[in-house]
Specification:
This protein has 645 residues and is mostly beta strands. It contains eight helices and 36 strands. It is globular.
Amino acid sequence: MDENVIILYPFCFQILLYSKCTKSKGTNMLVKKAFSIVAIAALGIGGVSGAKTVTALRFEPISISADNAQKKEMRVSPKLTMTYGDKSTQDFPLSYKVLAKMGDRIGQGILGRMTDQDGKPILKADGSQDISDGPDGNSLISTGGKTFLITHMEERPGELYNTELTVANGALKAVNTHPVDLKAMGGTIINCASSRTAYGSHLGGEEDYSLNTRYADKNSPFYTDCALDGSGNGAKGKKNYFCSYVDGMAKYLHDTKIDKYNGYNGEFFTPYNYGYIVEVQPQADGTTKSAKHYVTGKYTPELAKMMPDDKTVYMSDDGTFKGLWKFVSDKRIDSFVPDWEGTLYAAKLTQTSDQNGGAFTMNWIALGHAKDSEVKGMVEAKPKLTDIFDIAKPDENGSCAEGFTKILEDSKAECLKLRPGKEKEAAFLETRKYAAYKGATIEFRKEEGLTYDVDSNVLYIAMSQIKKSMEDNYKGKEITNDIRLPKNVCGGVYALQLDGNYNGRSMKAIVVGKPLNKGDKYADEWACDPEGIANPDNIKYIGHNTLMIGEDTTYHVNNMLWAYNTKTGKMTRVASLPIGAEVTGLEHGVAGDKGVLFVNVQHPFKDNPKAADSSKPNSALLEKVTDDQLKAFIGYIDGIPADAF
């Protein structure tokens, strides 16, 4: 590299460490000095004219919905107050802008239209086109003078849309959209939350809840017999999630040769091809680079978040009896690389408190080392579960036969015996089973969003519910019982303290929801106190000690977006979504000269909220809704200045 060329990464201005922001360790004093000047100018420090350092953000809170009209509306904070280093403040009026609704034609594409591997529309049973109501993870990425938004569709089969954005008359405008071509990786499934890398790519999880291979192998006691007729039904005509996932991917792949007696492997389909982290990077010409990172392991990943060392990646795992995962690359990943190589780890917790959501110390169990291409080869061999593990059910006393190890994963007890020489296949194709087999903590429940706080070197994790596998010896059948917490259906958000190498060393709840009992204030409509969180899901740290927490709940009449001050613990209600809608797509950034905070509205008027007694007093609001009200949409909180981010 030319010694006079400075290459800076997006996180540089936040942490002011030029040694991590330059390509060469031998950077000379000229480059160091130049970096200092650029960083100081960007942050408004010390004598740079016209610039002021932002030190705090404060949203004006909104109230809970006061009437039926407000319950059906999208409402956001009317004002943001920014505080600067000189103690001055400035107010900025805010509003919510819909960028696009599902089914909108944008340029040459129709946003949210589900397509097969050839880009052709997938049709529903009545012959109509399938339009998603599940926009989820967003990544705002600029390249070559253009700005793109990568957006997940949380469906089976999955779909990602690449939408080009411009700024016109002070407003963000979508000018073209099209599905990301994922044919080469065999498509994707249940694309949930996401994050953006420092080098400008999108990392998202394949939340394949039901493609657990214990259901696919005829030699497994959990085997599921599917009709394979496109209905998503089992052989006896009853709806089955595993079967619907197989049918969904069969539609995408046009695979008519799926053999349910041979691990549900087909001409193109194999259950082992799903449940990983997918990376997409938009290019200036509107195309995308993409890769499936098999070395992150197969489970039910909500998303992945890469740390500032460009090596360490954390992945959450949604569901019951799930794990927490870490991948460490052998070398820095500072550009799009389709073939990652490194070591996969599973978390092992030691509980130190059960109060207010609990506290734990943390260690990591190494599962295996591989590269993506190596694991992809294992997938393409189309194995069955019993090629890797012998599997049985515990006997009536809950015991396993000699030579088998009892584990709990994905809500089931299993007896496993690893086949000789299959350690690597187990680590990367049966990650959760193998982690439990080796004694890792597989007791997390509804482990959702991840986000990194560069100001405190903390990774935040949303645990949507603290119940079932996180309770003390749930149903009296737990094996390791590492997590022993009082039940809290409202969930909580945890902080992982990281060391200098970005290893998680401890985990503690920082905010938890409050369940209501019959007779409590608000309990006639709300199951969790509306003055706090319920079922946190999408979370995003936007700087200045501000953690945004989005909800996915039926325990609040309206799902809400909160701003949590990580220093003071103060919670501010920033948005209230239409009834039945989930908060998704949290993303912040700058488009042109605009600061934007994306907040998607997923499946409005669909989920029916419960009161404390489990009744559903607002059911009438979900009836007689219009087709337009049922459309999910992508939107953003407008009015935030660019220097807020």
